[in-house]
Amino acid sequence: MRQPSRYLPACAGLLLIALTPAVADEMPLPAGLWRIQTTIESSLPMLNRQQTQEQCVAPDESFNPAQMTQGLECSMLESSRQGDRLDWQAKCASQGMEMDTVGHVIVRGNTASSEMTMQASGPMPVTMTVTSEGKRIGDC
Question: pTM for the complete prediction?
Answer without folding.
Answer: 0.76
